[in-house]
Write a structure and sequence with these properties.
Helix content is 59%, strand content 18%. By secondary structure, the protein is of the alpha+beta class.
Length: 209
Amino acid sequence: MKKLVLLVLLIAVVAGGYYYYSSLKSGPSYALMQAAAATQTHDLATFERYVDVDALTGHLVDDVASQGSVVGMLVPGGRFAMQGALRLLKPQLTKAAHAEIKRYVQTGSLEAANAAAPKRLVNLSFTGLAGRVVGADSKFKGIKYTTEEGDEARVGLEFTQPKFDTTMVLEVKLRKQADGHWQANEITNTGELLKHVARLEKQKLMGGS
């Protein structure tokens, strides 16, 4: 009888471990890890499997446009945002952001990404703006949290920001696709991060007061 109980427990542990491993391999965190790995191997096809670049850049332009005055403080050319030009030029800017992201994945170079963006009226680099939040010296600390509700998930990615001696958490929204894999389609806290960085920049300029 004891042997039977031990056997049942062993099967339960193995089955539970397999289920846990399978859920990790097919979950939203796994999708983001695959997307990150694709940027290191410059595998655009894999990156686009796990990231809906069109949706992501569309939301990004909307979020940046809603923070016009903050953008004006952070990047050259931001003064146009204060005049509402970003909203009017959304199709052009979305196309530019898309081109920057694809080129960055293909080359791993921010300079190449900036150069890949088509000519536009507003001199605003989205990869350059992202670099103000997560800089070249930033390190990935880990996954802060993961929440799932039906076919939608949110994952908090924590990065160091040595310039300000702090950390930043990017919240990524993902949607489960028909074949079961997850795909990122939005950074939900872009506006909050931009405002936070602008405050930190201002404090630094004022000597930390």
